[in-house]
Write a structure and sequence with these properties.
Number of helices: 13
Distance between the termini: 16 Å
Structural class: alpha/beta
Strand content: 5-15%
Helix content: 25-40%
Shape: globular
Largest sheet: 9 strands, mixed
Radius of gyration: 22 Å
């Protein structure tokens, strides 16, 4: 399994993660993502293994934001600033573009599907070109994307095992307000799942029926960090805390739950055979299980000089650095393969960092 956080340009790290997995012959049977993680997930699940890397690279080549060669701003250390401002002002041709309706002002009643600073229609065209949504219901790699209902505030995971997944589901998962407008599905408006929970690991660990699993959980935000010393630093730290979405606490809670499931299984085994066959005991025993889930936890490193605008750093250098970091980190994890080592049979979720 492969679990991908949201994070805009930081999603380039996930491309490197998949590249290393692919080269090692590890193809996920289930990919789950939010926001840019949902886009990368769709590019993986919506293509045959032989062309997945090609389609991932094509998407990221489309969204790289270059502002030309070296100039005075590069010498002043402001080259990324110019590229980021270009993204803010003009968008990215294959991803999003300014929404002219927004010029009517923030109080204009545009409707939930238009109330945003940008239009994501270019992304719709790009996904239609690069993702084969027809292959997902046919028993291939499972895809799950998370989005939050703009009215009820409830998180919903759209899952190809239960329903057909189309371009609108992926776009809803990436509709981060107020930059992007809600996407309507089954009559309801949905926004980016990252505003509710940017780390969809709990959807995997809560899945039923449970199976022994190896889960590559890819985080691009940092739950911990140094004490910020300026307003600029505070802005960056606030984003990390918000979008890291308590990934560590999610896993800690799941460790407790799955340990209890194993305890229930062991206690049931201690009962006399006659008791085990009792219907009430069977009902209680059903809460137990013996599955083991290994979580290979990968966290994108901080790049020198990055700040709170790192999630819109679509510069070729930024994309390349993050992709290479994802590849190197995953290669090291696979070479170690800590999930092959003996484990305590009472533990249901085992994390490897």
């Amino acid at each position: 399994m492969l679990v991908l956080q949201g994070g805009g340009a930081l999603g380039a790290y996930q491309v490197g993660v998949y590249e290393a997995m692919h080269e090692a012959g590890i193809e996920p049977d289930w990919v789950i993502g939010t926001s840019i993680g949902a886009i990368n997930a769709a590019l993986i699940a919506g293509n045959a293994p032989g062309v997945r890397l090609e389609r991932l690279r094509a998407f990221w080549n489309h969204v790289e934001q270059s502002v030309g060669g070296a100039g005075p701003l590069d010498w002043l250390g402001m080259g990324n600033w110019l590229a980021n401002m270009t993204t803010v002002m003009r968008g990215i041709p294959s991803f999003f573009e300014p929404n002219l309706d927004a010029l009517r002002g923030t109080r204009a009643k545009l409707g939930v599907e238009s109330a945003a600073y940008y239009s994501a229609q270019p992304l719709r065209r790009t996904l239609a070109e690069l993702v084969d949504f027809e292959r997902m219901p046919a028993g291939h790699t499972r895809l799950t994307v998370g989005a939050v209902n703009a009215c009820s505030g409830e998180m919903r995971y759209f899952d190809s095992r239960r329903e057909p997944i189309g371009v609108e589901h992926v776009m809803a998962s990436g509709a981060l307000p107020p930059a992007f407008a809600a996407v309507r599905i089954d009559g309801e408006p949905y926004w980016d799942g990252g505003i509710y929970s940017n780390t969809p690991i709990e959807a995997v660990l809560d899945d039923n029926p449970r199976h022994d699993s190896l889960i590559f959980a890819v985080n691009v935000w940092h739950q911990t960090g140094p004490e910020p010393e300026s307003i600029w630093d505070v802005m960056g730290r606030q984003k990390d805390v918000q979008y890291a979405s308590r990934a560590d606490s999610h896993i800690a809670r799941q460790k407790q739950i799955h340990r209890l499931r194993h305890v229930i299984r062991e206690l049931t085994r201690q009962l006399p055979a006659g008791k085990q066959s009792d219907e009430h005991v069977k009902e209680l025993a059903a809460w137990g299980c013996g599955t083991t889930m290994h979580v290979a936890h990968l966290v994108a490193p901080r790049l020198d000089g990055e700040d709170h605008t790192k999630d819109i750093d679509f510069t070729p250098a930024g994309v390349r650095a993050r992709r290479e970091a994802g590849y190197a980190d995953t290669l090291r994890m696979i070479e170690r393969s800590p999930w092959r080592a003996p484990t305590d049979p009472i533990e249901g979720v085992i994390e490897h960092c």
